[in-house]
Design brief:
The protein is α/β, with parallel strands linked by helices and 340 residues long. The chain folds into two domains: 1-152 and 299-340, Isopropylmalate Dehydrogenase; 155-295, Isopropylmalate Dehydrogenase, CATH 3.40.718.10. Helix content is 37%, strand content 16%. It has helices at residues 26-35, 51-55, 71-74, 97-115, 129-133, 142-149, 180-183, 186-204, 229-243, 260-263, 274-285, 320-339, and strands at residues 15-18, 45-49, 62-65, 79-83, 122-124, 158-163, 166-170, 210-214, 247-252, 268-271, 290-294, 300-303. It has a twelve-stranded mixed sheet, with helices on both faces. Helix 9 links the parallel strand 8 (210-214) and strand 9 (247-252). It starts with 14 loop residues before the first strand and ends with a helix. The chain binds 1,4-dihydronicotinamide adenine dinucleotide (NAI) and the ligand NCC(=O)COP(=O)(O)O. 1,4-dihydronicotinamide adenine dinucleotide binds at residues 25, 29, 126-130, 142, 291, 302, 305-308, 310-311, 317-318, 321. Substrate binds at residues 143, 282, 291, 300. It holds the Pfam family PdxA.
């Protein structure tokens, strides 16, 4: 994959890191990232959530801050934490209603801080979607929530998962597999592709992004013998996107487009459904994969993995993806400054 030319000279405000579900591994990977801040060259950041969720899994220094402006001064000596709610009794691995409410509130506060310019962007630790749905969260995921708070329609907010040699975009995201074919429209593919191309320019400094589009059906439909979505929806969308000026190929057979040589031919793969996109990236880069939302006025990244309730509280969570998310957030913020 081509590398972008991003300077790391620009000074940045600290990033707001929502701690996610207090009973998941979010607090642990945020604390471990703070410990590794100098070794990994991480940008300054502050946690947003209930400091008790950090204390439940970590003995290190925490500085409770009253405002984001206090974070930069505290960051060198302690993990700054903006206390937003009381999650009640926190038992790592056992999610609760109060914990889900705290995760929701932390996300809300973090987005607000980034929107008002008090944070350079947001990095979101994992939430339990089932738990959030139980406390009135009506969006499929954090991606759509952040988009709405930023005034961006969900069609124009793109979920991209990124690792060192692969970037993928699911065109449809958190919907049942049985609904994928009917949810795929020319307009949706076109909106996602245009946002992806702009996002690659703006956040990664890739001047002329090359996009590859997967088919939906086996062998990209075999000219209609194995399904007609490629002929009726995907190919017409690609033709329109070429008229829009994009460098774009497809529909490609999905099973053959993720090997190493194929990955060198494009900057991002547009995939038709969640697992078509996320299986290759998580297989290659589970411990360093980053979920970045394109199309927003603010920078938002997240580790690619979930809450891992099964290992929460065991001190075995790998902070690699969280650290990669922090680094990518800083690179995206600097690229936006450099490229406008
Ligand atoms: N960005 C987000 O907020 C995301 C949230 N989720 C949520 O997470 C919950 C659990 O989802 P799962 O499908 O089980 O995925 P998961 O990513 O939480 O766990 C999958 C497997 O990977 C392991 N794992 C995950 N992160 C790890 C880390 N940093 N270090 C070591 N091992 C790690 C887990 O122990 C488990 O074996 C669900 O409620 C889902 O909604 C899932 C993906 C992303
Ligand atoms: N599987 C990716 C995922 O669940 C991330 O969703 P989001 O909460 O970042 O929208």
């Amino acid at each position: 994959m081509r590398s972008s030319n991003i300077t790391d000279a620009a000074p940045l405000a600290p990033f707001a890191v929502s701690l996610g579900d207090p009973a998941g591994i979010g607090p642990e990977i945020v604390a471990k990232s703070w410990v590794m801040r100098e070794a990994r060259g991480l940008p300054p950041f502050f946690a947003v959530g209930d400091a008790a969720s950090l204390r439940a899994v970590w003995l290190g220094p925490i500085a409770i801050i009253g405002a984001p402006e206090e974070a930069a001064g505290a960051f060198g000596n302690a993990l700054p934490c903006l206390q937003v709610a009381d999650a009640g009794d926190i038992v790592p691995g056992s999610p609760s209603i109060d914990g889900a409410r705290t995760a929701f509130q932390a996300l809300e506060v973090a987005v607000g801080l980034a929107r008002q310019g008090s944070a350079a962007g947001i990095v979101t630790a994992p939430v339990g979607k089932e738990q959030l749905y139980g406390v009135g969260f009506t969006h499929p995921g954090q991606t759509e929530f952040v988009a709405e708070r930023c005034g961006v329609s969900p069609h124009n907010a793109v979920m991209m998962l990124a690792g060192p040699s692969l970037k993928v975009v699911p065109i449809t995201i958190h919907i049942p597999l049985a609904q994928v074919a009917s949810a795929l429209t020319i307009d949706l593919i076109r909106a996602r592709a245009l946002t992806t191309a702009k996002g690659l320019q703006r956040n990664f400094g890739i001047a002329r992004p090359r996009l590859a589009v997967a088919g939906l059906n086996p062998h990209a439909g075999e000219n209609g013998a194995l399904g007609r979505e490629e002929i009726e929806v995907i190919r017409p969308a690609i033709e329109l996107l070429r008229e829009d000026g994009l460098d774009i190929v497809g529909p490609l057979a999905a099973d053959g487009m993720f090997h190493a040589r194929a990955r060198e031919t494009y900057d991002a793969a547009l995939c038709m459904y969640h697992d078509q996109a996320l299986i290759p990236i998580k297989t290659l880069y589970f411990d360093e994969g980053v979920n970045i939302t394109l199309g927003l006025p603010i920078v938002r990244t997240s580790p690619d993995h979930g809450t891992a309730f099964g290992i929460a509280g065991t001190d075995s969570a790998n902070p690699g993806a969280m650290m990669a998310a922090l680094k990518m957030a800083a690179e995206a913020a600097r690229a936006r400054i450099a490229h406008g």
